[in-house]
Amino acid sequence: MIKTNSKNLPIISVQGKIHHPILPSPYEIGRDGTARVLTSSGGIVYNVEIGDNCMNWLADHLEPGVSLKNENANENEALNLLACIGNEAEVVSGNAKGSKGYVTGKHGGISYVLVYFPHGDLLKMAVEDSVLIKAVGQGLSIDRFPEVVCSNIAPDLLCGLGIEEKDGCLEVPVAFEIPPELKGSGIGAVTSFYGDFDITTGDRQTVEELHLQDLRFGDIVLLKDIDSSYGHEYARGAAAIGVVAHGDSIMAGHGPGVTTILSCKSGKLKGRISRNANIASYLIGR
Fold first, then answer.
1. Burial of residue 214, with CB atoms counted within 10 A of its CB: 0-12 exposed, 13-18 middle, 19 or more buried
2. pTM given for the model
3. Is 127 part of a structural domain of the chain?
4. I want to staple 277 with a disulfide (CB 3.0 to 4.6 A). Which of 8, 85, 173, 261 is the partner?
């Protein structure tokens, strides 16, 4: 089992409110130039959760579970930076007060933190309910692998993923390995410590060849030749590993969103294909 510096990491409260969906226009313009009316980001999604397919919904950038945000920009920046996948979340206002769940990802651009709650608890929730997160994970590092940058993941979840050390490298169970040419929106971002990047899905032949039509919310995936240590860029021999946070998109350069959890530029981060490599397996036993 890997060892980390988790004992040195503070646990701090961050809090956000369930945010109403935003609709600046009734239409989404697809990569084919066609305007469509689709469900998008935000709110409470009752029938979609981690472990479900993220490719077959009549929606654009769909977010499973609950989407959190703060109207104060500085507070929202802190929420997005400090909340990490696997952190415990608790509803602290409204009819669902006391309900507990887990952070499952972050969505850049719109700046949401995404949280899983059991279905019965979702039914009690309302827009503007407050959710407190016990944030811990940023600053995490793995002993003897200083070149591997950790981001956006709770220490307990990282240690539970089944990562193994082999031949001087870290081998991580992943559901898919994705070539760098599919790195879409998010490339060139100034930081990988919040938000996400998209896997572009416009080339349907490639999607079918890689079986990406089976991609699920919560899947752990490896991006080949991508360095997401402190931003997102192409780097031959590098690897970035992340968690699928939001669903597919009809927009050019967009698709399922991935929140980074590990990255390495020196080739010491490898993937091991496992169909069970989904955070639902570790967090909710699904």
1. middle
2. 0.97
3. yes
4. 173
